[in-house]
Amino acid sequence: MSAPRRTTQSLRESALATLAAEVSACRRCPRLVEWRERVAREKRAAFASEEYWGRPVPGFGDPRARIAIVGLAPAAHGANRTGRMFTGDRSGDFLYAALWRAGLAAQPGSRRRDDGQRLDGVWITAAVRCAPPANRPTPEERDRCLPFAVRELELLEDVRVILCLGAFAWDAALALLARRGDAIPRPRPRFAHGAEAGPLLGCYHPSQQNTFTGRLTEPMIDAVLARARERAGLPGH
């Protein structure tokens, strides 16, 4: 009985790898293409010796994930540099530390694409796959990216919870559910920290603006991840 499961898992991993290659080659949004590539050329002084990814960033995590985490977009000098979601910036430091405390990540930090980080039961993606100017993608750019997320969730067929980091990700997830034919509650659910609507679960984004001011604290994100584990049916940690 185990051989068919291995085959299914292999096919899923292959399909996710194919999707990742398509995401990485996308040039649908001229404004985002120009910005991500300019940042990769000009670089930040602290990373002047590094080769920036400078392309759309594919999702990352466990192909058997029951929890999908949706962020806003890659940071210009974070994932746009490293090529992996929430890797190499302060937001990622906060998020991966929380995932590690929750037993969902192999290590408490993630600085490089080849640092050995692994996720267990979690997949991380974003509403928009390219770093946007001023960290502000447009709704039109979000909608052009949406088909990638729809296909991603179709492949991640074990996902039970979509954890949305911020209002932009929440709205993108609602659009994603509508695009794949799921019923959207009326009135339309509004984002809030800890809000729940169908498979969606809200959490403030782990941006420096939120974590440095105390709007999002470690106990707050720990509680949300515990709720995500509970709703996803993952064993207690």
Distance linking N and C termini: 29 Å
Mean pLDDT: 94
DSSP strand count: 6
- The whole-angstrom Rg is 17 Å
Q: Widest sheet: strand order?
A: 1-3-2-4-6-5
Going by CATH, what is the homologous superfamily? Uracil-DNA glycosylase-like domain
How would you characterize the largest beta sheet?
6 strands, mixed
Question: SSE string, helix = H, strand = E?
Answer: HHEEHHEHEHEEHH
What global shape is seen?
Answer: globular
At the first level of CATH, the class is: Alpha Beta
CATH topology grouping? Uracil-DNA Glycosylase, subunit E
Q: Name the CATH architecture.
A: 3-Layer(aba) Sandwich
Helix content: 40-55%
Description:
- The chain has 237 residues and is of the alpha/beta class.
- The protein has a single domain (2-232), classed as Uracil-DNA Glycosylase, subunit E.
- The protein is 43% helix and 10% strand.
- It has 8 helices and 6 strands.
- Helix 5 (139-155) crosses helix 6.
- The two termini are 29 Å apart.
- The mean pLDDT is 94.
Strand and helix layout:
Layout: H1 2-24, H2 30-42, E1 60-61, E2 67-71, H3 79-82, H4 90-101, E3 122-126, H5 139-155, E4 161-165, H6 167-179, E5 196-197, E6 200-203, H7 208-213, H8 218-232
Parallel strand pairs: 2-3, 2-4, 4-6
Antiparallel strand pairs: 1-3, 5-6
Helix pairs in contact: 1-5, 4-8, 5-6
